[in-house]
């Protein structure tokens, strides 16, 4: 069995205009903005979050952030009855002081502001 002959195909039309051009692939994006975010912005956000957490803890606890009264008290040692005076150096928060030749027993109240103020005292006779 034979197939009947097909009619001739018309020739392909020639395209008009210049030949099609290929699109260039897009340029890769710069990584500098990502590096800046990771190196600068992210640590600042972490530090800010930690600070917010620390300061919010003081407002949630009784006796937290606010004014506190610190009492410094120095007395004679039971074994040393000759010590009648002492030289004192103290620091509470941003307040500090130095007193020479105070009579013992000694007591001083200092008001400080903060969540956990730093307090120190040194007494020498």
TrEMBL record:
The chain crosses the membrane at residues 32-55. Residues 1-27 are annotated as: Disordered. Keywords: Membrane, Transmembrane, Transmembrane helix. The keyword Transmembrane applies. It comes from the Bacteria. This is Uncharacterized protein.
């Amino acid at each position: 069995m034979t197939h009947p002959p097909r009619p001739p195909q018309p020739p392909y039309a020639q395209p008009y205009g210049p030949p099609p051009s290929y699109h260039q692939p897009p340029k890769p994006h710069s990584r500098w903005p990502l590096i800046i975010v990771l190196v600068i912005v992210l640590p600042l956000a972490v530090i800010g979050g930690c600070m917010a957490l620390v300061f919010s803890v003081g407002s949630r606890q009784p006796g937290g952030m606010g004014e506190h009264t610190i009492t410094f008290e120095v007395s004679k040692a039971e074994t040393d009855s000759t010590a009648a005076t002492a030289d004192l150096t103290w620091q509470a928060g941003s307040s500090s002081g130095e007193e020479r030749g105070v009579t013992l027993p000694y007591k001083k109240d200092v008001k400080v502001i903060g969540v956990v103020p730093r307090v120190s005292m040194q007494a020498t006779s």
